[in-house]
Amino acid sequence: MPEPKMSLRKGSKVWAEDRDLAWVPAEAIEFVGKQVRVLTASGKKVLASPEKLFPRDADEEDHGGVDDMTKLTYLNEPGVLYNLQRRYSLNDIYTYTGSILIAVNPFTKLPHLYNVHMMEQYKGAPFGELSPHVFAVADASYRAMMYDNKSQSILVSGESGAGKTETTKLIMQYLTYVGGRAAGDDRTVEQQVLESNPLLEAFGNARTVRNDNSSRFGKFVEIQFDASGRISGAAIRTYLLERSRVVQITDPERNYHCFYQLCASGRDAEKYKLDHPSHFHYLNQSKTFELDGVSSLEEYMKTRRAMDIVGISYEDQEAIFCTLAAILHLGNIEFSPGKEHDSSVIKDQKSSFHMQMAANLFRCDVNLLLATLCTRSIQTREGSIVKALDCNSAVASRDALAKTVYARLFDWLVDNINRSVGQDLNSRVQIGVLDIYGFECFKDNSFEQFCINFANEKLQQHFNEHVFKMEQEEYSKEEINWSYIEFIDNQDVLDLIEKKPIGMIALLDEACMFPKSTHETFSTKLFQNFRAHLRLEKAKFSETDFTISHYAGKVTYHTDTFLDKNRDYVVVEHCNLLSSSKCPFVAGLFPSLPEESSRSSYKFSSVASRFKQQLQALMETLSSTEPHYIRCVKPNSLNRPQKFENLSILHQLRCGGVLEAVRISLAGYPTRRTYSEFIDRFGLLAPELIDGSYEEKAVTENILRKLKLENFQLGRTKVFLRAGQIGILDSRRAEILENAAKRVQRRFQTYISRRDFISTRAAASALQAYCRGCLARKMYAAKRETAAAISIQKYVRSSLLRRSYLKLGSAAIIIQSNIRGFSTRKKFLHGKKHRAATLIQARWRMCKVRLAYQHRQTSIIALQCLWRQKVAKRELRIRKQEANEAGALRLAKSKLEKQLEDFTWRLQLEKRLRVSHEESKLVEISKLQKTVESLNLELDAAKLATINECNKNAVLHSQLEFSMKEKSALERELIGTAELRKENSFLKSALDALEKKNSALELELVKAKKDGIESIEKLQEVEHKCSELQQNVKSLEEKLSLLEDENHVLRQKALSVSPKHSRPGFSKSFSEKYSGALVLHQNDRKPVFESPTPTKLIAPFSHGLSESRRSKLTVERHQENYEFLSRCIKEDLGFKDGKPLAACIIYKCLLHWHAFESERTQIFDFIIEGINEVLKVGDENVTLPYWLSNASALLCLLQRNLRSNGFLTTTTQRSAGSAGLISRVGHGLKSPFKFIGGFEDGISHIEARYPAILFKQQLTACVEKIFGLIRDNLKKELSPLLGSCIQAPKVRVHAGKSSRSPGGVPQQLPSSQWDNIIKFLDSLMSRLRCNHVPSFFIRKLITQVFSFINISLFNSLLLRRECCTFSNGEYVKSGLAELEKWIVCAKEEFAGTSWHELNYIRQAVGFLVIHQKRKKSLEEIMQDLCPALTVRQIYRISTMYWDDKYGTQSVSNEVVAQMREILNRDNQNLTSNSFLLDDDLSIPFSTEDIDIAIPAIDTSDVELPTFLSEYPCAQFLVPHQK
């Protein structure tokens, strides 16, 4: 039934059909006639009719999906599909649809979802409160069974690979956890049932068109419980085995797995004369013999192991596989027409071989087997008539035998498994888990699919009734009228199939009764009887095929083999033959039949009728139980994680009935919203009603009335809307939001336009002012330029006139000066030439001498360099040899450095000399060049002047040639210097090599120093660790010595007295009679120790032996002591100056009575028992803190007393003789027995510290017990308070005081839940401080309380999606701030590190309330925001988070993908990786901690109780007080 559509408008969010993805999100963009053009998410424009579009809520896409489909705004097919897809992408594989659980196979390990801690969370939790889980369904069924005392059933359905077996395993695992197991059972029921799975799969599963491991039978596992809810047994019941598959299969299907396993078994196959499956008729009807990725041999070994596990003996196993081999050989027997009419015989030698093998394997006579296959005997009055069978009848007889044998073999296996598991016949309640094949629709559908789909129709009817019943319960709980809702089911399809006398099964049985009936006659009769039936159609291209409209869709069936597969003859001859088999196993499968009076040996049995009967029995079993449904979904056909195939999943949802449940919900009230949620979303439709003066129910009704909606219902807490009404509401809401958006846009556009106008006007004014300024400036510039031009002209004219005058005057002066200068220069040049010739001659002579000197000097330097080079090379060879020695490295280095400095200095000096020489040469050359130029000029002048100059020029020419020769000599010298440079470079390279070697040696030296430093540091660390270990060893030795002392004392106490004296009888009677004398008062013992002489010591003792009254007085005093101690324990003595009076008085009494030196511990046991009795009887809130203070004080007093007396120090070995006796007298019991001569060897010397140490251990256990009780009581009181604090309450305020956004939630007022926790903590602190509990214990208690708060809040946050919201984060954060204030007020003395215990919840809440989560990287989240949280916990919060206040999104998809990759990698390594926190139940202190933390107690100043005067034994306290 499609959901009524809302009125479409432009911009409406819809779902559009898609060929590849089934449905895609789209948006309506325009209307074309009666059709709508939509824009899909991929950008594609599609034209569709409005009837094929479904409304979509865009707000839900920002979240990770809803955990219950009924919470969807639009409950329709695409909404369900994409909600599953969103949750699956976040690894949330479980989703509710009401009470139905949908489980999507993740194809990866998720161990954190199935550990013991997770089972503990779901144990007893109300259904639906925590996230969807298979444990929630199992717990709901278990609780319903216990509360209602009614059996339950869990129906697990889905195709193969969807996870049915794993889900069944998890259900049984959880039931084992909550129901326990039988005592002395090595294996749980869960293990026993699961161990039988490989065996049942081998004999009951086969390959079909869609699945490689499809169950061809139904399995119902009953977990049986006793009256106390503990598992007492289990049973496996099978239904509807597909028998026809044994003899007939179609390509590409396969027969049952066991046949292929047996053929691949190697030696076993050879033993049974088996070969490849293609050689057997029952297997080669299909060309598929192997499965991808499956080894038949390995599966055969698994089947063998499963048989061993369930207890099948080796002989029975061999008989089972003999039977299977016989069936295969039986299928290869072929027949040919015999000599007589309508008779048949064995066809050929091959068939004879298979006949012989079948007879041998069945252990029966081969002739009898042939006779039973080829003939039939008919009983008449005259006798038995044997009738021959034709070939077709013989083949049918052969197939009937094969099907009968296999069916009985399968039933035997199931019975054997049940015997192995163990049934409880006295169990009244059980939980059944049904695992049965799902709806099938193939290209070619035959009789098997007809039966399977018939079974699924019956189960779907049961499912529909359950869903409708759940709907009725929901309506009844909300007290709404639902009587007019019509329930549409599939009864018409069931009537079509099974109704008598003209149902399809009845017509099929009738056709099978007549030998000449064919599938054509059956089809004709079928169409004649159901011509007008709406669910039955005739196939288009076939005269005999028919189509049935099932709940999951239309299926076309081919009737070709309907009659053959429905006929199942049980032949009496077959049963008689196999019951007489020599194989006990085969004979056991066919017990002897009673004598029949029938004339025919045929016993016709209809497969369809038997199928119908078994199905009816199953439905009766299910009807007697309360059902729970789990629909398993296989997300893809490749078995890969994070791959979601929409079309396949949509088909599974249809076949699983999930969409049918949606259809039923649509028939009623599919949309349910609490009043607060409804008003949050649709309150803007009537804002005038939201002012706080109306109740939420009235506001909701007024909103619906205002929109003129009808047929809605108002329940106690929810409003129920008919299908399509939520669309109308959303459409109206969208209109209001659109109008509001338009109004906002209009105002905003007005503001923008006005702002632009004002800015444009201001710009125009500024532009005008600028233009006017420019024009004025231009006019001013023109006037100024005119005035400047006139002034310039005036000055130019005057300048020109003055310049012409000056030019004429200067020309006259120049002419005069030139004439005078010419005459003067002529005289000057003549004198200059004379001086120049003289200077050239002097300079040339000087240059010639200097060049000779420089040439000699350079030759000397070159010789020196070559000699030094030779010496250096020789020294280098020597240094290289010395460098090999490690000791000469530093000396060589220093020498080389000195030589290097020397060479460097000499090289620099030589460079300077060469540079100066070259500079002088260059200067001389430049001077010579200038001289040549001047001489050339003078020569030209001299030619014009006089002939004498020519002679001088010739001389100069000869001098020039000589200078050229000098120049060539200089060039040769330059070549020599180049060679010297090469040699210098060679020396430099040698020096560089030496420097490199030196640097390498230096680096090695530095590295060696570093290694030495590191080794020294490591040695220091090792020494430090050794010192720590020595200290630990010392402390352990001290503790070990203490334990050895205690063990020594315990061993001495355990030893019996073995007297060695000549008077053993007397010593024994004496010790038994006067054992109580060890605890005498001090005043009674004074006479014994007053005199040091032995006679005085013995006299009073012997006197005590003669007096019988002494023991009576001792008993009376003991009784009086016990009464006084009991009074001190039972009454509240209070405190004085913070000191617990009861502990002080008890300690002083024990000290005075020398109880710590006694051999007996009766008085200590009496004190501990008295404290335990008071704890049981009194008020825990008062008694526990009071006795925590007293018991800890008494423990500290005892501990310090033992230490001061040396009882806790290590004892040395005691020497024999009198010294040992004196030592024992000084530190022992001070008993008069030790001073009696002759009794020393007869009485064991028991250490006095044993009772005190034992009492200390008892007191320690008592303190730990009281602390644990206080802590557990605090957790019990705190749990309900925390349950209300984890989620923010909905508090509605007046409209005038708070703004309401369409996507947000109302602002929350400070609630009283956190105030209750603060009050609880204040009350706890006051109770503890009133009883003067030491701050050490208060600090530990407060720390553990805050740790429990952290664990409870954090686990609840991770398990409940409604808690992972922005507003809830703000609420919890405000509560944590209140706790922080309380911790600050309580001070560190009492609060300790309580604030740090809240790290997890603080960081989680801080992550919830930060904005712009999408901009945060994973590294920032893990290091800055949530350093204490694991990746799994961050992933859980990120995927469950949704912003109910501002509509912001969670972390980016890249961060989610990174976290998922890390989790997938961790899943392979960790055995347990739960994201929940565990509560620490250990005691957080030791006796030493108490002794160190609690200050010393002075028992001298103690206020005595008023009843002290009634007890003489305690009067010693009074003078001590005074």
TrEMBL record:
Residue stretches making up the Myosin motor domain: 64-734
One of the GO biological process terms: actin filament-based movement
Domain Dilute, residue spans: 1165-1465
Assigned keywords, A-Z: Actin-binding, ATP-binding, Calmodulin-binding, Coiled coil, Motor protein, Myosin, Nucleotide-binding, Repeat
InterPro entries: Dilute_dom (IPR002710), IQ_motif_EF-hand-BS (IPR000048), Myosin_head_motor_dom-like (IPR001609), MyosinXI_CBD (IPR037975), MYSc_Myo11 (IPR036018), SH3_Myosin (IPR004009)
Annotated binding of ATP, by residue: G158, E159, S160, G161, A162, G163, K164, T165
GO MF: actin filament binding; ATP binding; calmodulin binding; microfilament motor activity
Key word Nucleotide-binding present: yes
Domain Myosin N-terminal SH3-like: 9-58
A cellular component term, taken from the record's GO annotations: membrane
Residue runs in coiled coils: 977-1053
Ranges where the record places region Actin-binding: 615-637
Signal peptide range: none
Family (UniProt): Belongs to the TRAFAC class myosin-kinesin ATPase superfamily. Myosin family. Plant myosin class XI subfamily.
Protein name: Uncharacterized protein
Organism encoding this protein: Carya illinoinensis (Pecan)
